Amino acid sequence: MTTLVSRNPADPSDVVAEFAAPGAFAVADAVERARTAQPGWAAAGAAARSAALSAIASAVEAAAGELADLAVREVGKPLAEARAEVARTVAIWRYYAQAPYEPTGAVHEPAAGAGLLLTRRRPHGVAGLITPWNFPLAIPTWKAAPALATGNTVVLKPAPEATASALRLAEIVRGALPDDVFTLVPGGSVEGSALVSAADVVSFTGSSTAGRQVVRAATDRGVPVQAEMGGLNAAVVLPDADIERAAAHIAAAIAGYAGQKCTATSRVIAVGTALDPLREALAEALRAVPVGDPADAATVCGPLISPEARERVTAAQEGATVLAEGARTDGPGWYAPPVLLEKVPPGHQLLCEEVFGPIAALLPAEDLDQAVRITNAVPYGLVTSVHTADLDAALHGLDRLDTGMIRLNAPSTGVDFHLPFGGAKSSAHGPREQGRAALDFYTAGRTYTLTPHGG
Fold this sequence. Notes:
By secondary structure, the chain is of the alpha/beta class. The chain has helices spanning about 25-45, 45-60, 65-75, 80-95, 140-150, 165-175, 190-195, 210-220, 245-255, 275-285, 305-315, 370-375, 390-400, 435-440; strands at about 5-10, 10-20, 105-110, 115-125, 125-130, 155-160, 180-185, 200-205, 225-230, 235, 265-270, 320-325, 340, 360-365, 380, 385, 405-410, 425, 430, 445-450.
């Protein structure tokens, strides 16, 4: 039996959780128990499901301080961000607590004759959820809440690095639900593969490599699957932008949580005469980002999740010129200073791969058309931020961007949970997450034809 360890990224000697991965058979058993519990959960009715999700929201809110501190300790999330994630988690549970009362179908007249045509959406059964470590509370929630609201049961397999956070969240969730409606199975790739092989609907967030494997396995079985797999996001700055404001937004999107967000900015495209002033303002803003202990409420950029992650950030600087470097931290954790590069050659790692760290490249573009081409010239297409005062120029460029989300005069990071979340190209597969889109994903449509007797 494999033993997995979760360590504090700010102090690797601090073991947060140590646990045995239970193996594939344990996962299969959890899915079967969830499948047995599912009809009763679906039949409990809208009021029961709504009350349960509301109770979860209240319980999470009551444990907010504990959960935030645990996220700081286990995944190195800066305290201010950890508190915001807990608040977002509460809001998501409350948002989906209203979903059981939403219409599940429609009534239509037949083309000819008497009778009725009905459409209705029904739960798939057992939702298998595989989640990453960087949002240890919000991502499991924005997958589980809509799945539960629509009458599915849930089996969650969190990333090993975030097991303690997920276990505490699961304890809270299970306290408001019948037995086996929500189950957490810790583990690694073996357990994840077993879950994909058994669940009735699969939702994954993580690396592109793992995501493609999940998609293939679920598709081969013919079960619905969605996969969110990262980004290589650009910030496009036009000459008429508020340069100081844009620089502040972009610096936060590069260095916030040490760049460990799929929505982080890793390419900054300065259009025309915006290059020189942005170059200076962004370098200054990045140097000013507070770096250090994630337990300090003032910290913006804490440690990376592992020594391998820190090595990737260091390796990604090779072949380019360092324009600006943020503060260094002497602590025992896996810290790396925020870095802005320039003179990045074509084919450089940072221009084709997601590094997942506090590092970005500054790239020039002659005009908006070239900026759009540069933005689109990567395998990913999750989110792009555009900074300009010209709405016409923004709309002209926005329609040609190959990204699932576009943010105008705002950081690339930060999305609204009540709207669809997802990307294009290698960033995503399948339907969108969050908002009402999630309710559709976790249900299957049926069409009923009702003909009167003798008709």
